[in-house]
Amino acid sequence: MPIIEFHMKRILLTGGMTALLLVLSCLVSVPARGQQPNYDESKVPSYTLPDPLVRENGKAVRSRRAWERKRRPELLSLFSDQMFGVVPPAPEGLHFKVVKVVSDAFGGLATMKEVEVCFDADETQSLLLLLFVPNAASGPVPAFLGINFRGNHATTDEPYVSLPSEERMRRYGPDYQCDPRGVQQRRWPYRDILSRGYAVATFYTGDVDPDYHDGFHNGVHGLLDGDKPRTGSSWATISAWAWGLSRALDYLETDPDVDGAKVAVIGHSRLGKTALWAGATDPRFALVISNNSGCGGAALSKRCFGETVGRINQVFPHWFCDNFKQYGGKEDTLPFDQHELLALIAPRPLYVASASEDLWADPHGEYLSLIHAAPVYRLYGEDAVTTPEMPAPGEGRMAGKTAYHLRPGPHDINIYDWSRYMDFADRFLK
Ligand code: GTR
Fold first, then answer.
1. Which residue, judged by its Cα, is nearest atom 12 of ligand 1?
2. Pairing mode, if any, of strands 402-407 and 350-355?
3. Which of 138, 203, 238, 409 has the fewest CB atoms within 10 Å, i.e. the most exposed one?
């Protein structure tokens, strides 16, 4: 950016010229990386949230039928066209191969299965689903499904979980480095989950789309898009990951040990954004959990608190579709906000959680988003969290089909969060 040049020239110049260059350097740095994020509630701009129950033509939505037939499809295509890009259906060649089974995982607590979810008949690309099912179960069980950041082997140090093959590592890109086993096991408390009677499944982001901007040639874009020219609403990486979650669910629906009608989708941070989008686009997900998903996830964009639309699009240009870029620094012009993404999940159970020190993800904006999704739950006669005051750190809210907690501490997911998610899931999936 010219900004660096301006600073160098300032050393050589003096007086009015310096002042002019300073002004110019401020101008070029608006609105993204150079700008300090706002963490001051009193500096949140005034904004008006669009009403999820008012159609684009201005008509009020008063029935479930009108919501399902008119307003919901309208909102879904708005989020597809303007934010995430359009998610394609399952590919024709989709098929599954159980490639490894270990019946005494975790000392006999569970059976591990590794399943290749193959995206094409030729098996040029697949995601490797790691699935644990509790051995104590007497029939199909409910399950949690979420993507992981660092590889299946990083979610546990159990030695029978496969390391990625050479071929997979090549697909993950030139900078991929295989982490040691178990580096993220704190985020995946498998023993606790299995002991409570749930199955749990995960796969690595890179199996569907490596998390860097390569112009959408690698991953599932390369496989499915062919030479189709990209448009402003072409799917980007978060849509690809959400698509991957749906393909993993396609498999889980066929697994005799899992109740495919009771699969909760869960994700942390960028993968929390993904879990919400998967829940919105795929109504088969029975419950949706967003952990510290922040900007582009549960947090209201129009508050411009912490991470903003401009900044996220600049730093992660591959996450959202190109049309979304126009709203950077112009959040007031967004024709939707994230409470409407949450509303797309209604009337299914929805849990949003924040962490008290995670101001970058705007905990207050995440909470407000949840309560502003409530009118759609109400339309279904369901109760939902509506208390205007957000809870204090260490507290939560639960009403009917929605729940929220504010974990004390930083941006993360751990057993504190999982325990609450399982308590919530017990009410709907057991
Ligand atoms: C941050 C990003 C957030 C969040 C986070 C994560 O750098 O700004 O939106 O997604 O990464 O995924 O850990």
1. 270
2. parallel
3. 138
405 given a catalytic annotation: no
% of the chain residues with pLDDT over 70: 92
Residue 5 lies in a domain: no
Per-residue confidence (pLDDT) for residue 34, from 0 to 100: 56
74 assigned to some structural domain: no
> At residue 352, does pLDDT exceed 60?
yes
Indicate whether 50 belongs to any domain.
no
- Find the 270 Cα to ligand 1 centroid distance in Å: 5
How does pLDDT run across 296-351, given as a tens digit for each residue? 999 999 999 999 999 999 999 999 999 999 999 999 999 999 999 999 999 999 99
What lies within 8 Å, CB to CB, of 399 at 6+ separation is 383, 384, 385, 386, 387
Give the ranges where 44-137 is alpha helix by DSSP (H). 64-66, 72-79
312 Cβ closer than 6 Å to some ligand 1 atom? yes
Domain assignment of residue 305, given as a range: 82-429
Question: Is 246 in the active site?
Answer: no
Cβ–ligand 1 distance for 184 under 6 Å, the answer no
- Residue 293: which CATH number? 3.40.50.1820
Is the shortest distance between the CB of 295 and ligand 1 below 6 Å?
yes
> Which amino acid belongs to residue 199?
A
Q: DSSP assignment, residue 423?
A: H
